[in-house]
Each structure stands twice: as structure tokens, then as C-alpha cells.
Specification:
The chain has 62 residues and is mainly α. It has helices spanning 2-12, 14-61.
């Protein structure tokens, strides 16, 4: 889908398409730390949930 949209943009306005092609990796690199922080926060929330739910799981298995 992205390739098709890029091809349409290339036909309609090629300077904008080339600018998007150049800027996409730069924007991806700038957003990479935020993705890593999101992964870490999700992991920490999962760990905290597992710690709090451990006694209930232990009681349920008895």
C-alpha cells in the first residue's frame, strides 16, 4: 500500500516524493528512541502486573 501511494505521489509531484524518500530514514531514526522507550515501559508494566498477580495465580493453582 505504501509503495502504491509513493508511486502515485511520484507521478503527481515528484519533488515531494523525492523529499519524502530522503526524509523518511531521518524521521525513522529520530523516532527510534521513543519506540524503544515504549517497549521498555510495556515490559515494566508487564513485570509489575506479573508480580502483583503472582499470589493470585499461586492460590488458584492449589
Amino acid at each position: 500500500m505504501k509503495l502504491l501511494l509513493f508511486c502515485v505521489l511520484l507521478v503527481i509531484c515528484w519533488p515531494v516524493a523525492l523529499m519524502a524518500l530522503v526524509l523518511y530514514p531521518i524521521v525513522w531514526l529520530l523516532l527510534l528512541p521513543f519506540r524503544l522507550v515504549g517497549i521498555v515501559v510495556t515490559g515494566v508494566f508487564g513485570l509489575v502486573a506479573a508480580i502483583f498477580l503472582l499470589p493470585a495465580r499461586a492460590l488458584r493453582s492449589i
